[in-house]
Amino acid sequence: MDEIPPLSxxxxxKALGQHFLFDPDILHRTATAAxxxxxxxxxxxxxxxxxxxxxxxxxxxxxxIVVEADPRFAAALRDWPEMTSGRLVVIEGDARKVDLAEExxxxxxxxxxxxxxxxxxxxxxxxxxxxxxxxDWRGEMALMFQKEVAQRICAAPGSTHYGRLAxxxxxxxxxxxxxxxxxxxxxxxxxVDSAVAxxxxxxxxxxxxxxxxxxAVTAAAFGQRRKMLRASLKSLAKTxxxxxxxxxxxxxxxxxxxxxxxxxxxxxxxxxxxxNSGG
Length: 279
Ligand code: SAM
What we know:
This protein is 37% helix and 19% strand. It has helices at 24-31, 51-58, 71-77, 81-85, 100-106, 124-132, 147-154, 164-172, 211-223, 229-232, 234-239, 244-250, 264-275, and strands spanning 20-21, 41-45, 63-68, 88-92, 113-118, 138-146, 173-181, 186-187, 194-201. S-adenosylmethionine binds at residues 16-21, 45-48, 51-52, 67-70, 73, 94-96, 118, 120, 123.
């Protein structure tokens, strides 16, 4: 790993959520957490000094597209020999503004692409929600988040972590936590534990396609999670000329139930009923 510049030359930028991994075992476990990247197209957001990038290449990634906001790291990565051979594609910029489907098409990458990243904490969740909606090109994902976010992705109904992120993630993926890491595994150390969430796409017939409706319903339901659903969904129901009670009963859900008790199937019924009510 001698391509990785020493931290003294590349001090971490807090605003960009820079907490780097250097342990080869942890990097290999992260690179392979969602399965072997051998022969696959992989997207990595935030390669930083390149430890995970190197591990992904060592594990046989065929085409690796990285998106890095920090020009210091993007410039260093462009000097890697894999860049010249075309195996590594470096995009400098904000991952939230990059059209990954377009970038994949431009380099003629084999699909679906895996996404493997030690994500910057401030942009991890919105990026994940975008990727959940990208059913046409997105494959397995292994994503390092703050542990609490990983728990929210993988949570089951009734748990304190269960909410919008679990319902959206599990509408299109099977999710589990591969492993957790203490702050000391990173340089500089973050304040909290981290964890790698693995998300594997469900078979097409088990996916719920209308994530936009599911987002609207879960935002309303969990926005006031202590309230009964007939109260928390009242305003959203009105936008479609529905009464919350009739909507909930039509979806076979007790109007006095609270959001955290409703399972994936229940939220799918609510979203379908809402979407089919026009608007
Ligand atoms: N992958 C490296 C590792 O594991 O050591 C670095 C991970 S560090 C947690 C997050 C990386 O994401 C940093 O390199 C940071 O500069 C980059 N980053 C932060 N915000 C970004 C954004 N909006 N788009 C692309 N990269 C971003």
